[in-house]
């Protein structure tokens, strides 16, 4: 179904005026400090917490945090977990935090662990996919990134010479992808929007340049007892991409500027939870994110 967006002229890309109009319509709906920063503060007894930058927008500044293993060993493989690249994808943020609170300690003997729980706090607060400049951070992991959210985490990893062997990027696919975010994208670009079928269940996006089919399969098997895996649609696809094995599609991450493409990790995946399913709930969605990270680490433990 084709939808026209409330801002802009159909067929004409947005200029600065339209982007400002879009930004003026956004409002704070939840609190980054209360929901995220306070939980990070409680982790300081077990982990090192570092500020890797600050987002500065007209109305607000947001400190950005990574949580790291306290005893860092250069001879151990490193695991990177990222959440909240798209701030509106709630279980990505809370799944990263809950992993640190419950599961991470079980893997410290084998891995260095570094978690960036919420890369896009403005998007978290306003429940948005984009940042205030109408830029999608998860298409901006490129050199000279136009998005502060991506540039700052990439700079931090480079400065500290962090080269993960495993990277799990936590995301959601929601009904608002069709009702809001895809129509907004088409309007911004001056193109026509055609909604995709929202998969009912959990799935993964692999990087086609380093697919690691057994790694993806191990994660799916770990998540299965927690929540249901999305079946393919009538065309054998999930969100328009062919399903290459149960619950897995693939994209070429680096050319698309995706978060999972920002490192050369051997084992990399993007999780996708469907929180709007009648067959799940918010707690189960967070648990599925944690299970996905656990499955990734259990598989990679003797392969890095």
UniProtKB/TrEMBL annotation:
Keywords: Hydrolase, Metal-binding, Zinc. It comes from the Bacteria. It comes from Pseudidiomarina piscicola. The lineage of its organism: Bacteria, Pseudomonadati, Pseudomonadota, Gammaproteobacteria, Alteromonadales. The keyword Lyase does not apply. Belongs to the peptidase M14 family. This is Peptidase M14 domain-containing protein. Residues 28-304 form the Peptidase M14 domain. PROSITE patterns: PEPTIDASE_M14 (PS52035). GO terms for molecular function: hydrolase activity, acting on ester bonds; metallocarboxypeptidase activity; zinc ion binding. InterPro entries: AstE_AspA_cat, Peptidase_M14. The keyword Zinc-finger does not apply. GO terms for biological process: proteolysis. Its cofactor is Zn(2+).
